[in-house]
Design brief:
single chain, 444 residues, alpha+beta, Rossmann fold, Dna Ligase, domain 1, eight-stranded antiparallel β-sheet, five-stranded parallel β-sheet, 15 helices, 26% strand, globular
């Protein structure tokens, strides 16, 4: 087992990893930018190293600075959390070269799943259902027009190196394809330095359902059931829950088997998530694989009593897993509490938290790095905390979440708490009647 782990991240996920490391008797190193010098991970880690200014490119995305911090503190492993360098194959490779274990996927596994066109081809070969679309990247506009006729409108153009909804365009008819093609390529090139575009059939009334998986270094893979992430805005998740209210036993088994096939196709090591689109007829299609821990891993932990960060660390250190699949025994919901103003188009609201009170009680969990007096910096993701509740049934979980939201006090900045309060009162949400398009008609 590792003696000391450096956490190459910030905020709540850094604190989350520190907690598990301490419970495992492992020393921790926090790295931080000048904007995060007063953060809780810095306070609670055994050691802390400043790696640069607030700008991410010069701190949390600076591989030389992070490797240097690991070397001067004698860390024998690095946990990347999520975001930043967590799915960076170069970083994983450089860690290997320096004799530091990257607690995550190997470089070739990240590459295989990081490029969406390559991932799709890999899934087809593995027998995992995929959305009909182009075979690889589109050569040019003429190729796009031809493929669209074959696939059938509506179609969606996607950046091969994309994420967060950038480089994506829905096209409903042929005359709209050329402007969508031009704008998608331009946005993808600017955002990712790669303007490669591929095409898929646009799945109407879709659910976004993902399967949590874990694989060891010896080829054993298991799944830990599903999470429904359909409540999202501009492709950014707002609420997640497990089990999905749309799920059946038969669909869960089929999707679990497909996720295991996907992981085995790239000899996957670590914990990861295979994401699917599920249409209204419960046909499911591979969307992507995230080769890292997810923000919403918490709800899976709550319904199966399973510490996924601990499992990551154990797998990285060479432990074997049983191969047993896990199924939800309870119902859990997570609300992402962001420093955003839901009354003003969710505009970011950085600033100082003047008053802070967390909800508590049975079945309520808060993952956060915030406190009274903490300043939410404008440089990073706006998430303040994750509020998780677990109960025997979905109805009970919604009632518990309403109670917890009512108790949650954050003053000095705007937050998304009022949005979540209204969502928990929405009849369609309470009935489980929603898709990824829910927020397009949700009135706030």
């Amino acid at each position: 087992m590792f003696k000391k782990i450096l956490i190459a991240n910030r905020g709540e996920i850094a604190l989350r990893v520190i907690r598990t490391c301490k419970e495992m008797g492992i020393k921790t190193v926090a790295v931080y930018s000048t904007a995060d010098k007063d953060s809780l991970p810095v306070r609670f880690a055994d050691e802390a190293v400043c790696i640069g200014p607030a700008v991410s490119a010069q701190s949390y995305l600076s591989i030389p600075n992070i490797i240097a911090a690991a070397e001067i503190t004698n860390a024998d492993a690095i946990h990347p959390g999520y975001g930043f360098l967590s799915e960076n194959a170069k970083f994983s490779e450089i860690c290997q070269q320096h004799g530091i274990k990257f607690i995550g996927a190997l470089p070739d596994q990240i590459n295989a799943m990081g490029d969406k066109a390559t991932a799709k081809a890999t899934m087809i070969a593995a027998g995992v259902p995929v959305v009909p679309g182009s075979e690889g990247l589109l050569k040019d506009l003429d190729d796009a027009l031809k493929q669209a006729e074959i696939v059938g409108y509506p179609i969606i153009l996607k950046a091969t190196a994309g994420g967060g909804g950038r480089g994506m365009r829905i096209v409903w008819k042929p005359e709209d394809l050329e402007p969508a093609w031009d704008s998608a390529r331009q946005e993808a090139g600017a955002a990712f330095g790669n303007d490669g575009i591929y095409m898929e059939k646009f799945v109407e009334e879709p659910r976004h359902i993902e399967i949590q998986i874990a694989g060891d270094q010896f080829g054993t893979v298991c799944h830990l059931s599903e999470r429904d992430c359909s409540i999202q805005r501009r492709h950014q998740k707002l609420v997640e829950e497990t089990p999905s209210p749309f799920m059946t036993d038969e669909l869960r088994e089929a999707m679990g088997e497909a996720a295991i096939k996907a992981a085995k196709a790239v000899n996957y090591e670590g914990v990861g998530t295979v994401e699917f689109l599920v249409d209204k007829h419960r046909n499911f299609y591979f969307m992507e694989m995230n080769t890292r821990i997810q923000v919403e891993h918490t709800i899976t932990e709550e319904v199966i009593n399973y510490d996924l960060i601990k499992e990551q660390i154990k797998i990285a250190s060479g432990y074997t897993i049983s191969g047993k699949n896990y199924y939800p025994q309870m119902h859990a919901i997570q609300c992402r509490i962001n420093a955003e103003d839901p009354y003003n188009d969710f505009r970011p609201s950085p600033g100082k938290i003047t008053s802070y009170h967390c909800p508590g009680g049975h079945g309520v969990r808060i993952d956060t790095h915030a406190y009274a007096g903490y300043i939410i910096p404008p440089n990073y993701d706006s998430m303040i905390s994750k509020l998780i509740v677990v109960a025997q049934t979905r109805e009970e979980a919604i009632l518990k979440m309403k109670r917890a939201l009512d108790e949650y006090i954050i003053e000095g900045i705007k937050t998304t708490i009022p949005f979540h309060q209204k969502l928990m009162e929405n009849e369609d949400f309470k009935e489980g009647n929603f898709t990824t398009k829910f927020m397009e008609t949700f009135k706030f």
